């Protein structure tokens, strides 16, 4: 290969490697793995068609898997926990240890499911998995949510075709006893009780921040391309912080 081809190849390799950086704390270590089998098409699961029609001529079509599973796992204090898939429903509570959540490897999704993490004693990393509530985390929180996870679609009516996107997902982060770093493509974001540094980018969504009694003695920022930013401040913050907008 020539220099240009080698550079392009290296960019591709770096991009592939970058997708696995969230697992770097687990590499080269012995881990326990838990996986549910029998839910994919390759494992024998099949879908059934669902159709609902009305006398007025309207109709809705869809499909659903024949087999479903609900799993509850109790874990002791751990050096690291990784959850893959996480597009159907997620409820984490009272876990001790750093937690990584990713949508990678998902076989199904639930647009109306509830996704929450509460009372986590350790760092939290969320990689393009849906989240509704992050509450009482005793560690740093890093969220990347740049993929549109809403149930977008197309409607056909009166010889017209209309593309639609539901309102932004409401995300609440409160009681974060550490730094918060987040990048959202579009979210209705509410922040409250963040003890550490705040570095948030919500590109096309609205952000509301209820500031703590005093900000952490670090640089804090909230960025948006077109969303509204609303900050409620304590008097102590006005006295000790310099502000730019």
Explained architecture:
- With 245 residues, the chain is mainly beta.
- The chain has one domain (69-240).
- The chain has 2 helices and 18 strands.
- Strands 3-5-7-9-13-15-17 form a 7-stranded parallel beta sheet, with no helix packed on it.
- A hairpin with a 5-residue loop joins strand 1 and strand 2 (59-65).
- The longest helix is centred in the N-terminal third of the chain and has 16 residues, at 3-18.
Strand-helix topology:
Layout: H1 3-18, E1 47-53, E2 59-65, E3 81-84, E4 90-96, E5 99-102, E6 115-121, E7 124-127, E8 133-137, E9 141-145, E10 153-157, E11 160-164, E12 169-176, E13 180-184, E14 187-194, E15 198-202, E16 207-210, E17 221-223, E18 229-232, H2 235-240
Parallel strand pairs: 3-5, 4-6, 5-7, 6-8, 7-9, 8-12, 9-13, 12-14, 13-15, 14-16, 15-17, 16-18
Antiparallel strand pairs: 1-2, 10-11
Which key terms come to mind for this protein?
mainly beta; 2 helices; 245 residues
Could you give a short description of this structure?
The chain has 245 residues and is mainly β. The protein has helices at 3-18, 235-240; strands spanning 47-53, 59-65, 81-84, 90-96, 99-102, 115-121, 124-127, 133-137, 141-145, 153-157, 160-164, 169-176, 180-184, 187-194, 198-202, 207-210, 221-223, 229-232. The chain has one domain (69-240).
